[in-house]
Every structure is written in C-alpha cells, then in structure tokens.
Amino acid sequence: MDGHDSPQTPKGSLRKFLEQLSGAGKAIGVLTSGGDAQGMNAAVRAVVRMGIYVGAKVYFIYEGYQGMVDGGSNIVEADWESVSSILQVGGTIIGSARCQDFRTREGRLKAACNLVQLGITSLCVIGGDGSLTGAHIFQTEWSGLLEELARDGKISTEQAQKHGHLNVVGMVGSIDNDFCGTDMTIGTDSALHRIIEVVDAIMTTAQSHQRTFVLEVMGRHCGYLALVSALACGADWVFLPESPPEEGWQENMCIKLSENRARKKRLNIIIVAEGAIDTQNKPITSEQIKELVVTQLGYDTRVTILGHVQRGGTPSAFDRILASRMGVEAVVALLQATPETPACVVSLSGNQAVRLPLMECVQMTQEVQKAMDERRFKDAVRLRGRSFENNLNTYKRLAIKLPDSEIPKSNCNVGVVNVGAPAAGMNAAVRAAVRVGISEGHKMFAVYDGFEGFAKGQIKEIGWGDVGGWTGQGGSILGTKRTLPGKYLEDIAAQMRTHGISALLIIGGFEAFRSLLELSKKRDSHPEFCIPVCMVPATISNNVPGTDLSIGCDTGLNVIVETCDRIKQSASGTKRRVFIIETMGGFCGYLANMGGLAAGADAAYIFEEPFDIRDLQSNVEHLTEKMKTSIQRGLVLRNESCSENYTTDFIYQLYSEEGKGVFDCRKNVLGHMQQGGAPSPFDRNFGTKISARAMQWISSKLRESVGKGKKFLSEDSVCVLGISKRTLLFQPVAELKKETDFEHRIPKEQWWLKLRPLMKILAKYKVSFEVSDASQLEPVQPRGPEEPAAI
C-alpha cells in the first residue's frame, strides 16, 4: 500500500517488472472511434495512466481517425491529471467521429505523417469492428506510407527508418456486443442497465392497465441486447436478427400472449431488436407487431423505442472494471510487441483477459452478417459464440411452457431453498430452477425461510406461473435464514420423507456451503440425505469456495460505485476532503477492492493483504501529495473486517489528525443498502443461467438412478456449481473443503487479488504487476469440451 512499493512486492521484483516493461522512448496514441459506448473513458484513463507509469508518452487523438488525419491540435500529449474524474462519465471525452478521409489512401498518408512527426508508433484503438479494420489496414500499409512520405520530402529518411513499424492493439467499445471472440464488449453491460431500468418502470404501469408493451432496443445486426434483456425481465416474446421466428409466428405469438393472460398475467412484454427480420430477411418492425396484437387480440398495446438512451448515462461497475483491465492489458501488449506482432484485440473470455488476432475476430464477425444475409440462421447463432447460443436456449426453455401432456413425468420431487443473507438475483435463480425443473418433468417444491422453515414444514409445491415476474425482484421472496441444518437434522429428514424430496437445490452464500457439508456428513445416519444436492452461490460478499463470482455481488458493487460517485462529487465541490467508506463483505475484500478499482479510490484496506501503521502513514503522505495537484479529493475504502484494531473510526481519526491543515475527513458506512435494491442485469442473467444449469445437473443425476432405486452416496452427488476462470464447474463440496479458510469464511485462494496492483497503479502507487505471457495470441474460439462460463 505504501508510496514506494506494496508490502507484497519486494523492491527487486518492481525493478525487474519495470525493466521488462519499459516504455521509455515509446509514444502511444489513444483514440476512440465509431459509435460511443459507456466505459470508453475508463479505458482511456487506464491506457494513459499505465502508459505514463511505465515511462511512455501517451497522446490523446481527438475526434477519432478524423483527428489523426487533421493533426495539429487534435493530437495532444496527456498527463496523469488529464484523465482525472472521467471514470464515471459516459461517452468519450476525446470525442469520436465517423471519418470518410481515413478510408482513402491520401487520408492515411496525412495521418501517418502526423503520427511520425510526434514519434507515435503504437496505437490503441477503442471502437467497433469498422474502426479496428481501419487500424489493421493502416498497420499493413504503414511502411509503404512512410516510403512515399520520405520520397515526397514530407518526412526525412531517418524518420522513416526509425519509425518503420506501427503496432496496433484494439479494444472493442460497442454497446451491441457484436464482436466475435470477446464475451463482453465495453458498454454492453451499461446499455443493459439502461434497458432494464426502463423495463422495470414500464412493468409497473403495464400491470396497472393490463397493457401489452412492445419495446424496441438497439442492435441493427446483433440481437444480444434484445436477447439478454428478454432473459433478464422474462419477456413473453423476443425478435432477433440472428434467429428469426418460424413461419406462422404471428399466430404462435398471439396464442402465447393470450395463454399468459389466461394464467392471470396482467401484462405482456415483447422485445424487438431494431434489426429484427423474418426468415425471408424482411424487417419486422415494432409498429407491425403492435398492429398485429391490436387486430388479432384487441389488447391495449403501446410501443416504446429506447433509442440513444441506451448509449448514455454513467458506466456500470462491470464496464469500468472491464475497461480498466483491458486498458492496462493493451499497454502491456503494446510494450511487448515486436515489429512482427500482428494487430491484436484485448478481450475477455470468461473471467480472463486474453489477446486475440484482430483480423480473425473481424472476419468472424463479418461471417455472422454473411450467414444472416444468406439466411443460414443456425450458422449465424453458432458463429455468435457459445454464450449467445446458451442465452437463446435458456430463454426458450424459460419462456415457453409445453402443455402438461407433452412433458414426460419423472416422478421426482425437487426442493429449492434459500440459505444465508439475501442477495439480489436469488429470485431469478429460483424462477429458473422451478421452470427448468417443471420442463424436465419434476414436481418442484419451494422451501420457505431456509432450513428453519424446512424443519417446520413450510414447504409448498410451486408452479410455472407462481414464479412469473420474479427476475426483477430484489432480496429473497422465499425468505432466507442464516441457520444451519445441524440443529434440525431429525425434523428436516422427517419433512423430506413426508414430501418425498428426491433432490435439493440450495441457493445461498457461505452458510449454504456449510449446510452442504453438514448434510453430506450425516448421510450415514440419515438415508434421506442420500440424494443429489447442488448449491448455487448467491451472496454479495463473493466469498464462496469453488466459484469466482456469486449471484448478488455485481448488484452490491454497483451500489458501492454509485455511492462513491456521489461522494466524490461532494468532495470535489468542497475541495481538500478525503472520504473513508466502509463496505460489507465479512472478511472477504472483494467488494472493497473491486469497488476501489471501479470508483477510482486511492486505497482499499482489505483483510487478505495485511497492513500496518506504516502503510496507513504512507497513504496519508500519498494523499497530502495529491492535494498539491489539481485533484483535491481522496477516496479510501475499508472492508468491514479488514482489521480488528484499525477500525473505520481509527482510520478516520488518524487521517483527520495527520491531514490537519492539508485536508479534512468524512466517513461513511454503507451498511445493508448493499444487499438491497433491484438486481443488476448481470445478476439476473447469471442467476438465471447458472441455476438452470444446476437443475439440468440434478435431472441427469436423477435419470441415472431411475429404476435402480439407488442411494446417492458418492462425493460427486453433493456439488457446488461455480464459475472458474472460463468454465462452469461442478465441484464436490468434499474437495472444496481443503481450499477453505473456515475461520474467516473465505476461500484460501482468490483470483481478484491479482487485480489489486491495477487499482494501485491507477492511483499512482508504484507496485509490480503480474504480466501475462508476452507473445501468446490465442486462437479465436477453440471449442473445448468444457462448458463456457460466458455470462
């Protein structure tokens, strides 16, 4: 944490790190091009600060490629403070424009000339596939352009030789998420936030009037936003460019809407991507759909077109962290590049930052469009990637109920229970489990109020319609308790006999994990527990062993980041003020650390990285230095259990005393607001998909035992379903036991600690940073047997 070096980093490793990655003598140009997207500023900030940190010069190129062609005051050197306070701003502060000139060789000649004059031979381009293709062409032509400029005497031969190679790294900024090879593009998550805010608001008015709403979302060529928002709000019908409805869809849709009304549903939501088409490639418009519903069914129907609202507003926590990680990775990639390195894209696969060959990704993205033009829609969906395919299949399963007569009965009863503290997204998980269970032929039973309710027999069969509209609800509708089953084993076993429970799905946090262990330990004495049991992790603390992420932690993070934004604004107004903010999380520092990264904090104190009075002292000195610059405010996050003695009050008093005359202090404890609120789109989607997957696992286990009447005794029948790096994994709870620190209720190894140096570098501390393998470019989309964990 201290001003020179982090306590975890011996001096030598920092020196070695900076030698390995020296940017001395390098000049990097950063530009945003094409349509804007929330989070572009976070990427620009990360590129500028990481570049300066390793000793390179970084230049803003204003107005995209147009600024590169026009040169002059459009290309300006950036310093540390030029990217202060932009993390929370939507759009892009360096401007973006569509540029015709750059499409001509003359335009590119001018651009090359302007870059060479400043010695810029590394480009970081943030934009969509068009912008990245432009950068690729520019890179391939570079040496030819310089020869021509030297021939015409516009640059000297020395300049042409010295700057003979251009290196390009791209980051995809596009709300449509239409780029192949990357799971999420910068801006997609924020656009989903805007859409879901609108849908939640429309649902309340539609409820009141029994209306049907047709919502049109962006996506001319890509249905990602439409698909994921339909999943996240449980829409009745969705229209996508990649997967047009079958012939006769008009009648099918009307039947579906009237069936839903017959089930006492007071509203219908239909989501349309702006590029929606039918199987003959003719557009399907929202007005057309409205007309159809009004004439066929006579429902009161309204159309809402969201338009550019989706591009606006402040970036979500996810987009800020994604863009910051990618920006730092982009600079590292540029510093490691050799003259032979092809243009690459930094992107996200599961939870890993990876580098992919730029042109392969672009070609694959264009393949999708080609497949759609040629009406090969199955191919289009496949080319979009496994995460898109998964989303589509999950949506179909959860939206359309087959008639009972068509579902083969399994004669199995499956219980669903929530355990631990409430987390946003739990209800989405329950809904998905119930509906997938019913579609697999099981009877689904809801257990109310955790294991306490289980013991008292608060168990009811729950139907398809009972969970309608649950995805957007925060907290836990079933009710949840921290009580472990240990106290009530006899009663729980008796209730399981009474209701004939043949499998159990537990949704919850660390208590759920411990419940799993307790139940599996007691299998010898209670044969009722010899059934498949699966746990889906749901807790804002994100402290469950066996998974990188839990349902609810994204919503909690967004609450922290929104609050920090407001607090920073207040601090900027009063000047020379430092805020100390306490976050939840028990002993797990995930919320404090990631919140610090997303909110641009100066320090985050966590239990996993011990700190002492010298670290606190050096943080105070760091803030004193900062107050001499134009950024006169500070933000410090502290995890609630990071230290027994360095309490929030202690740190507040220490900072107040040490900062006397330089800055004053305020403190803020965020408390339970982090657990509440409507779930974020990420948590709704993650909860839905992971829980649907858990039910499929339960079904396959139950199918194995059909007719054998066998008891489940093996360890692999009690599992935690988690996301690990890039895959969804079922891990026996017995194996996870040795990876767990039970005293502090956290896993022994946590992936996000690797991102800790990122926050410190962006806050101007000198630390070393684990760099990924230099020249490794990954192939695009190898289809392994494992399950993709793309969210």
Automatic annotation (TrEMBL):
The keyword Ubl conjugation does not apply. Substrate binds at residues 174-176, 211, 218-220, 274, 302, 308-311. ATP binds at residues 35, 98-99, 128-131. Residues 413-791 are annotated as: C-terminal regulatory PFK domain 2. It catalyses: beta-D-fructose 6-phosphate + ATP = beta-D-fructose 1,6-bisphosphate + ADP + H(+). PROSITE patterns: PHOSPHOFRUCTOKINASE (PS00433). Allosterically activated by ADP, AMP, or fructose 2,6-bisphosphate, and allosterically inhibited by ATP or citrate. Mg(2+) binds at residue 129. Its cofactor is Mg(2+). Homo- and heterotetramers. This is ATP-dependent 6-phosphofructokinase.
